[in-house]
Amino acid sequence: MPIVTIQTVADYARVSRATVSRVLNNNPKVDSEIRERVLQAVEILGYQPNRVARRLRTQSRDVIGVIISDIQNPHFTSIIRGIEDVAYVRQMNIVLCNSDEDSSKLQTYLRVMQAESVAGLIVVPTHADQEREALQSIQRNGIPIILLDREIEGFEVDSVQVDHRHGAYEAVAHLIRLGRRRIGIIYNDFSTGWQRYQGYIDALNEAHIPIDRTLVKTSDHKRESSYDRTRELMALPVPPDALFTAFNLVTLGALHVLHELGARVPQDVALVGFDDMPWADELFSPLTAVAQPTYELGQTAARLLLRRLNTPDAPFQNEILPTQLIVRQSCGSAL
Amino acid sequence: MPIVTIQTVADYARVSRATVSRVLNNNPKVDSEIRERVLQAVEILGYQPNRVARRLRTQSRDVIGVIISDIQNPHFTSIIRGIEDVAYVRQMNIVLCNSDEDSSKLQTYLRVMQAESVAGLIVVPTHADQEREALQSIQRNGIPIILLDREIEGFEVDSVQVDHRHGAYEAVAHLIRLGRRRIGIIYNDFSTGWQRYQGYIDALNEAHIPIDRTLVKTSDHKRESSYDRTRELMALPVPPDALFTAFNLVTLGALHVLHELGARVPQDVALVGFDDMPWADELFSPLTAVAQPTYELGQTAARLLLRRLNTPDAPFQNEILPTQLIVRQSCGSAL
DNA sequence: CTGAAAGCGCTTACAG
DNA sequence: CTGAAAGCGCTTACAG
């Protein structure tokens, strides 16, 4: 294990460590001949400046911490890609952690990130109440935080999310326009789910359709749960003629039930899901879905972070990105 | 930005930095009264030891570098989850990079990882020939490497992969057993694709079915490419009566074509895919697939790395994990 | 233009 | 049991 440090290079090039450092940092006032000698030494020795040492010395921060809640969910996967792409051009690295919707795991990671002196944090909170304080304290310590996807009430930060409420409204309005009246909904109790539920209400209200509580279900993030909720809905004396599934895993669970039941989609029950999926077209009923600009969510989060690092005192910014309803066949009509 | 360092704590507790450090590192020979005082100071000041400094000083390595080729592919996503889970219990962090199947990007990341003094690297190579040297040089510098999913000829390392050849053999043998004879294949030219192709050959040979070159197609990692290849296969004077699609993106492309063509699956053409997908059951034809133990792949890679770190001189280990054929309806029979 | 020296925040022999 | 001192690999005022 040949440890080549800046000293090795300095010795080889017969200069001081300071000079080597200057050359590597493109300090202009280095004699061109010496510069050459150093560069050659670097080349020959295959020297890689130690980033850990550099980071400690310059107190520079070139790592972005990212904490998401479910790395197996394509939604987040695409977000990460967006973050990574903007980080790459800025020569920043990302340390990725998966909280697994577990608040204590998230808080552990928060501590780690702080100890790693990350430049800033992009985080998808899981349980606002338990995490608010830890997050705020990190922010107070000068590490900027960008909230992604979910909000935390009473916590002033930069954030990006999608217009959940309007997206959901469009989805449900689409169903209503196609003549559906008994529209079941399955959502989760994160802030996103709640907002999507509001959009559902908006659409029903607009059409003067009374809210039937028996058609409203909440589910956790497990697919089994949405499976059960869908079963319950379909077992109603008068089952729904349409379903609005408020996130991708729920949609999968619901589809499974409909398939099992031999329900015809959309004839017996129409279906719109929140979250588009790359394979939406290949599903047994090509899925009409509210597509989120996931890649842009990631990009925007990263950009907000970069901006905050440049101008720490800028007012907080809350970006809301639009969704897009992609009409396929699961509701019965292109519109 | 209140910077609380070990000195702050030492002052507060009226001891030396050395003592604070000892307390934090659970050094037993610290007076219990003093220990208490330090612990209290730590608590009150909210002190987080700076990991960057610690890492530099102890030359400790507690970061695992992971370079995968496509973070949006569920295959890798599940692998990452496996890695992360074993890293978490060891209190190690992972730095994740996405090479995007781009060899120069991968090499950039390799340099970064080295400069970050990672404990070791888990990497999915993309173009063996271009990366062999860089990888070997890192290994020579004492940073262990675990190759994941794909091999590099003539490079001795620890590695994990799945039994691609046998998995493919089983898939194709399944088709043959169901009476299919004109079996098309679409694979890619990574080492994995090549091995899967061998499995296809094995099954045909065993059944004494001659290889028809017109039924053999290669595709890159883009879905469009597999779309085109499937179109070509289906446009043959005598189209195939079965398709073996050798990785998940290809399967999606093929399904799309079959859907467009109105082909009945499995009546007109049976389909087996390599790679299972969480939504395989909800596809328009529930997919019979060769499932890879992706989570275990990740776990195994991480464990191999940990083992190598413990015993640097152990002989190299090449783990081959078994696949499992999951029979659904796309081939026409549960068998 | 170049080098000696200080210091980033830790840890750990070495004395005592 | 505790502290003073050295040092991990860098960078950067400060002299010259």
Secondary-structure topology with pairs:
The structure is a homodimer of 335-residue chains.
Chain A: H1 6-13, H2 17-24, H3 32-45, H4 51-58, E1 63-68, H5 74-89, E2 93-98, H6 103-115, E3 120-123, H7 128-140, E4 145-148, E5 158-162, H8 164-177, E6 183-187, H9 191-206, E7 216-218, H10 223-234, E8 242-245, H11 248-261, E9 270-274, E10 288-291, H12 294-310, E11 318-321, E12 324-326
Parallel strand pairs in A: 1-2, 1-3, 3-4, 4-5, 5-11, 6-7, 6-8, 8-9, 9-10
Antiparallel strand pairs in A: 10-12
Helix pairs in contact in A: 1-2, 1-3, 5-12, 6-7, 8-9, 10-11
Chain A binds a DNA duplex (16 and 16 nucleotides) through residues 5-7, 15-19, 21-22, 25, 29-31, 34, 49-59.
Entry summary:
Chain A contains twelve helices and twelve strands.
Can you put this structure into words, describing what you see?
Two copies of one chain form a homodimer. Chain A has 335 residues and is of the alpha/beta class. Chain A folds into three domains: 6-49, Orthogonal Bundle (434 Repressor (Amino-terminal Domain)), CATH 1.10.260; 61-162 and 294-322, Rossmann fold; 164-292, 3-Layer(aba) Sandwich (Rossmann fold), CATH 3.40.50.2300. Helices cover 46% and strands 16% of the residues of chain A. Chain A is built from twelve helices and twelve strands. Chain A has helices spanning 6-13, 17-24, 32-45, 51-58, 74-89, 103-115, 128-140, 164-177, 191-206, 223-234, 248-261, 294-310; strands at residues 63-68, 93-98, 120-123, 145-148, 158-162, 183-187, 216-218, 242-245, 270-274, 288-291, 318-321, 324-326. In chain A, the strands form two sheets. In chain A, strands 2-1-3-4-5-11 form a six-stranded parallel sheet, sandwiched between helices. The longest helix of chain A is centred in the C-terminal third of the chain and has 17 residues, at 294-310. Chain A is elongated. The mean pLDDT of chain A is 92. Chains A and B meet through α4, α5, β2, α6 and α11 of A and α4, α5, β2, α6 and α11 of B. Chain A binds a DNA duplex (16 and 16 nucleotides) through residues 5-7, 15-19, 21-22, 25, 29-31, 34, 49-59.
